[in-house]
Specification:
CATH topology of the largest domain in chain A: D-Maltodextrin-Binding Protein, domain 2
CATH superfamily of the largest domain in chain A: Periplasmic binding protein-like II
Number of domains of chain B: 2
Mean pLDDT of chain A: 88
Mean pLDDT of chain B: 87
Radius of gyration of chain A: 22 Å
Strand content of chain B: 5-15%
Distance between the termini of chain A: 66 Å
CATH class of the largest domain in chain B: Mainly Alpha
Largest sheet of chain B: 4 strands, antiparallel
CATH architecture of the largest domain in chain A: 3-Layer(aba) Sandwich
Strand content of chain A: 15-25%
Distance between the termini of chain B: 55 Å
Shape of chain A: globular
Number of helices of chain B: 12
CATH superfamily of the largest domain in chain B: MetI-like
Strand order of the largest sheet of chain B: 1-2-3-8
Largest sheet of chain A: 6 strands, mixed
Order of helices and strands of chain A: HHEEEHEHEHEEEEHEHEHEEHHHHH
Oligomer: heterodimer
CATH class of the largest domain in chain A: Alpha Beta
Low-confidence stretches of chain A: 1-26
Low-confidence stretches of chain B: none
Radius of gyration of chain B: 29 Å
Number of strands of chain B: 8
Number of strands of chain A: 13
Number of helices of chain A: 13
Number of domains of chain A: 2
Shape of chain B: globular
CATH architecture of the largest domain in chain B: Orthogonal Bundle
CATH topology of the largest domain in chain B: MetI-like fold
Helix content of chain A: 25-40%
């Protein structure tokens, strides 16, 4: 009888578990987030500039700030985010299964990831491309001289595939040493296991800071791929998709309109109708997203506009000092462009 | 008449066999229904979210590279080939690990029982340290300790004869077989067969006359001499492709990855600590009277151990030893953390991530480990039955 009871209990709890998953797929992510009282955000396990806990244990980075922006829009409190560090190979499963509400983990937007994994990218918060880092003393000028090299890489990434394509098309041999965790991959490169380390160029600058002697390493000029990095959500919840997408766009629009964290309160009095609509002084554009009308005001007030976030995490204001380049606004020669709020 | 009918109906309702069958059938139905529901529910949910539920990814092109492949593999091979590569890499580590761990474990287990204070204390320290720290930490330590002190390919440590050691691994000459090499192989096999035959003969001779023949020396000669002779007679058909330093690393030769070494060493010395305890328990389980009896017959300590104690101890040792073999095989999945391309790293890692077919890939991976474990257990059970005390 004991055995029967135990089996029945196990089976029943299994049924409840699967029931829970189906409930999550059907109902709205926003309601669940409000119910939990915090956003669950999948982030990098540790990549400077994108997702890395600082010396006080606070998560910082471009992707992290996007999650804080979403939390600010929903709760008017950027601290209401629970960050879940995910390795590259686990990240999509975590999003698919509902473990995280949004995946802001410098993930590359690709066709198959949307068509086959049941995910959707909301936009691109960093236009990137894959590069290689080597030791200066190797005296190489180009990635085309890497024939026969050992390359450390994080497994389960587009990086792993691009590298294979690159070496195959150039008719060069190489050895891929793949690690599940980015920190292990960087450590192995640093210890001399590999001649080169490859990832997205932004990641190379971020990882270089973690090396024992950052000055002894150099990033090669070749960019071998297109890597549009951005946050992703599950398919099937359009309201949530829109909310995340417009959080990103609100930050870009704020930069374009000159609204910053510092001047956002003054900007409430601005006569510019575009600013009035963005900050919710005129109209109610938050309603359709399931938010209050000052949603974008909250984002800028607590987190800042895209330019500020970029500068603070990866640009001039950070240790990485990456130039805006492609990530400048469209009006400044880049390709960051947001549809208008109206 | 009525009485008999009533008795029958009562006996049917209260028949313990029938009632037992009823409850068991009911339980099977409930469990079956719930698992069916769970699978159906999962499949429906996955489909609703656009997650693949079929196995169509199996034949698609993998388009990623693996740095240790025992069979032909390139980035244009299908996922099925990547699966095989990972599986073989796992089996390689498990097979070598099991052998090394067993040999090492036996020595340490015996050393713990040594009368020499230093030897027994050292063995105790070995067992206690390795048994009581997490395996993952040991692996990371060995990997980083194996890697860091080794030099770059350009400053490789040379052992002569084309053998080099550097932080990319151990490079050794790769044997190239010309026609005629087959005869050398046949000679080697015949030599091994002959040595077994000689051993059987020596045993029979000892039983009949008590004379002890030098088995070890004759066997060594039988195994080594024929292939060497044939090799010279056939005009040296085996040549070696010597590795040459070119560019970043050595070109040619065979290479043993440092990740492989770290994993095999880590798994072996960890499991050996447990095996040592099992061996010690096994030996202690043999009553001391057996040893005394053997020694009073004039057997040396080594002979006592080999001929009297160990054969009896094996009966106690083999069943828990099987558990350790299974544990070692399963622990080999920790390879992910040090970048060795085993089944979990290649298949449940990159392939899963690339295809998004998490449920299918994990199910296949679990099934593979289950099959490996069951086969290992089966072989060990057969061996155990042979070793078990034959009751007459």
């Amino acid at each position: 009888m004991k055995v029967i009871a135990a089996t029945f209990f196990a089976a029943a709890s299994l049924a409840v578990m699967t029931q829970g998953a189906s409930a999550q797929a059907g109902s709205k992510t926003l309601d669940l987030v409000k119910q939990k009282g915090a956003l669950t955000c999948g982030t990098n396990t540790g990549l400077a500039g994108f997702g890395l806990p600082d010396d006080k244990g606070n998560w910082t980075g471009l992707d992290v700030d996007l999650c804080r922006g979403i939390a600010a829009a929903i709760f008017n409190d950027p601290a209401k985010v629970k960050f879940i560090p995910l390795s590259a190979k686990d990240r999509f499963t975590a999003l698919q299964s509902g473990e995280v509400d949004v995946l802001a983990r410098n993930g590359t937007w690709t066709q198959s990831r949307e068509a086959e994994l049941g995910l959707m990218w909301v936009g691109v918060n960093y236009y990137d491309g894959q590069g290689f880092m080597i030791r200066k003393k190797l005296n190489l000028a180009s990635a085309l001289e890497l024939n026969g090299a050992s390359v450390c890489v994080q497994q389960g990434t587009t990086t792993e595939l691009n590298m294979s394509d690159f070496f195959r098309t150039k008719g060069m041999k190489y050895e891929a040493v793949a690690f599940a965790d980015i920190n292990e991959a960087v450590k192995a490169y640093d210890s001399g296991r590999c001649d080169a380390y490859t990832t997205d160029a932004s990641g190379l600058y971020g990882s270089r800071l973690k090396l024992v002697n950052p000055d002894e390493h150099v990033v090669l000029p070749e960019i071998i791929s297109k890597e549009p990095l951005g946050p992703a959500v599950r398919q099937g919840d359009d309201q949530w998709f829109n909310l995340v997408k417009w959080t990103h766009y609100a930050m870009i629009n704020a930069e374009e309109l000159g609204v910053t964290k510092a001047n956002v309160d003054d900007m409430l009095k601005s006569p510019n109708p575009e600013i009035k609509r963005l900050l919710g002084v005129e109209g109610d554009f938050g309603k359709g997203l399931g938010l209050s009308k000052d949603w974008a005001y909250r984002i800028v007030k607590h987190v800042g506009n895209y330019g500020e976030v970029f500068s603070r995490n990866v640009g001039d204001g950070s240790a990485l000092k990456i130039k805006r380049g492609l990530n400048s606004l469209w009006s400044a020669g880049g390709i960051q462009y947001a549809p208008p709020v109206r | 008449m009525n009485d008999v009918a009533a008795q029958r109906s009562v006996s049917l309702l209260y028949n313990p066999r029938l009632r037992g069958l009823f409850w068991q059938a009911g339980l099977i139905l409930i469990v079956g229904f719930l698992s069916y529901e769970a699978v159906l529910n999962a499949a429906t949910n996955m489909r609703a979210r656009g997650i693949p539920t079929d196995f169509s990814f199996w034949d698609r092109v993998a388009s990623f590279d693996i740095n240790q492949t025992l069979i032909a593999y390139s980035s244009s091979s299908p996922y099925s080939q990547a699966f095989l590569v990972g599986l073989l890499n796992t089996l390689l580590v498990a097979a070598i690990g099991v052998v090394v761990a067993t040999v090492l474990g036996f020595f340490i287990g015996i050393a713990r029982l040594s009368k020499n204070f230093v030897v027994s204390k050292l063995a105790s320290i070995y067992v206690e340290v390795l048994r009581n720290t997490p395996l993952l930490l040991q692996l990371l330590f060995i990997y980083n300790a194996v890697l860091k002190p080794l030099p770059n390919p350009r400053d490789s440590i040379s052992f002569g004869a084309g053998i080099y050691l550097n932080n990319r691994g151990l490079v050794v000459p790769d044997p190239q077989f010309a026609p005629g090499a087959g005869f050398v192989l046949i000679a080697a096999v015949l030599g091994i067969v002959a040595s077994f035959a000689f051993k059987a003969y020596a045993k029979k001779r000892q039983f009949e006359s008590g004379e002890i023949l030098p088995v070890a020396r004759v066997s060594a000669a039988l195994i080594l001499l024929p292939p060497v002779l044939v090799y010279l007679l056939a005009g040296q058909p085996i040549s070696f492709d010597t590795p040459v330093l070119r560019g970043f690393n050595f070109v040619g030769g065979m290479r043993v990855l440092p990740e492989f070494v770290a994993l095999v060493v880590g798994l072996s010395i960890y499991t050996a600590a447990f095996i040592a305890e099992i061996v010690r328990a096994g030996i202690l389980s043999v009553s001391h009277g057996q040893t005394e009896a053997a020694q009073s017959l004039g057997l040396s300590r080594a002979q006592t151990l080999k001929l009297v104690v160990v054969p009896q101890a094996l009966r106690v040792i083999v069943p828990p030893l099987t558990n350790q073999f299974l544990a070692l095989t399963k622990n080999s999945s920790l390879a992910v953390f040090i970048g060795y391309p085993d089944l979990v790293q290649v298949f449940a890692g990159t392939v899963l991530n690339q295809t998004g077919a998490a449920v299918q890939v994990i199910a296949i991976t679990m099934a593979v480990y289950l099959v490996i474990s069951l086969i290992t257990a089966m072989i060990m059970n057969v061996y155990n039955r042979r070793m078990a005390l034959v009751e007459r």
